[in-house]
Amino acid sequence: MSTTPAQRDWFGQPRGLTILFLTQMWEIFSYYGMRALLVYYMTKQLLMGQQQASLVYGLYAATVYFTPILGGIVSDRWLGRRRAVIIGGAIMAIGHFLMASESLFYLALASIALGNGLFLPSLPSQVDGLYQRRDPRRGSAYNIYYVGINVGGLLAPLVCGTLGELYGWHYGFGAAGIGMLLGLAVYVGGGRYLPPEASRREAVAATDEANDAGLALRLRVLLAIALCVMLFRGAYEQIGNTIALWADTGIDRSLGALTIPMTWFQALNPMLVILLTPVLVAHWSRQAGRGREPGSARKMALGAGGVALAYLLLAAVSAGTAAGQASWVWLALFFLVLTMGELFILPVGLGLFARLAPAKHRATTVAAWFFAAFGGNLLAGLLGMAWSRLGPAAFFALMAAVAAGAGVLLGLLDRPARRMEAEVGPDRAAMTTVRI
Questions:
Q1: What domains, with CATH codes, occur in the chain?
Q2: How far apart are CA 138 and CA 423, in angstroms?
Q3: 416-420 own/partner pairs: CB under 8 Å, 24+ apart
Q4: pLDDT tens track of the chain, all 436 residues?
């Protein structure tokens, strides 16, 4: 594997990790900053109906997760990872600034999705090249990198959302574009600390595929899990869609003499990810030490069940306050329960795909994870169209049923998935980090 020359570390890790961390942080800041405003902008500024806005939101979010499948191929075969990151980031920044014109709204969305397709698969794939194969810091590098994703997600609604709500939508979109440019500046300026581009001859060889007898079964199990995750995301991705609408109309956001900006609630999820992840990882480590850690598919089933409970909470609150507005505390509690469930399913599922990916088919296997996100966001948009017809209580109950259904199906896959993990072994657990 190609690695960078020996360099002094920053914070106990290669300098390149800091560069990739900050680049990803600013990209996430731009993406989630724009997303925090999108539904409000469509319904309040462009005067779209709720159903149309939900469908557009779902199509856009789905496309963001579809383009990396094609962008990864372009990056690997023609552009190379560095040029793909720079070109993709520049196209995304242009898209954010195009949001300043209402007539260019759809072109702006297409530009962001297209640029994301080049950027998303090309940046995190450089993390592994910063380390020698047996470097003990290699595993923790991805945890550190993932923090960058959530720091960006935390800052996005607080900065872009606040600017958009208080000073005008275009100020929020402009801040997202500036964030993307800052990320590109960090990446280009720190290029000397990044691993060199690998040639095609240095592609990962199939060193662990001596016995391919179980390959077809492994791929079928992963496909089944991807379909379950797709169903789960139909409910989970409502946090940027119908949950955002409910935060605007169904929640009393008063805090003394202040009114909490509706976009601030979008910051709760990444903040809770940052706070809860160390606690959960420590818990799983203790379980592993006692030989009692659940298998990945079982963890994912529990996570889907947790998200179902979060939506049942909102269904009960909505039914009890049909004639008025619920306290913002209930929405905060919803995000707490939902985030705990999310940590059981999305990062765990990504790690499962990374471990079980056959070396000869790694890109195709990881693309299945993107496909699950693509289909799940599309499903979320379609389900969101029922919001205005069903009303909050019935809609949230429906989302609980969708998440619970995904949990039941994942539970049925626990035994074959556990068997596949045992066959692969722990040495294949090098994590691949993407926007999950």
A1: 1-199 (1.20.1250.20), 214-436 (1.20.1250.20)
A2: 22
A3: 416/217, 416/221, 417/221, 417/225, 417/295, 417/296, 417/297, 417/352, 418/295, 418/296, 418/297, 418/298, 420/214, 420/217, 420/218, 420/221, 420/356
A4: 444 444 567 767 889 989 999 999 999 999 989 988 999 999 999 999 988 998 998 899 889 888 988 888 888 778 888 999 999 999 999 999 999 899 999 999 999 999 998 998 788 778 777 877 667 676 556 667 767 788 998 899 889 999 998 899 999 999 999 999 999 999 999 999 998 876 555 544 444 444 555 677 888 889 999 999 999 999 999 998 899 889 888 899 898 888 888 878 888 988 998 898 888 878 887 887 788 888 889 999 999 999 999 999 999 999 988 667 899 999 999 999 999 999 899 888 877 876 776 655 555 566 677 788 888 988 999 999 999 999 999 999 999 999 999 999 999 999 999 888 777 654 444 333 444 5
Residue 251: its H or E element: strand 251-252
The 3-state DSSP class for residue 350 equals: helix
Amino acid making up residue 145: Y
Q: Which DSSP string corresponds to 164-203?
A: HHHH-HHHHHHHHHHHHHHHHHHHHHTGGGSPPPPPGGGS
Rounded Cα gap, residues 113 and 62, in angstroms: 9
Pairing of the two strands 254-255 and 251-252: unpaired
Burial 171-193 (b: 16+ CB within 10 A, else e): bbbbbbbbbbbbbbebbeebeeb
Residue identified by tokens 């996430």 is 28
At 252, is the secondary structure helix, strand, or coil? Answer: strand
Asked whether the beta carbons of 293 and 196 are under 8 A apart, the reply is: no
Instruction: Decide if 241 contacts 381 (C-beta within 8 A).
Output: yes
Closest listed residue to residue 76, CA positions, set 24, 68, 28: 68
Instruction: With residue 327 as reference, give the H or E element that holds it.
Output: strand 326-327
Tokens of 423: 């066959």
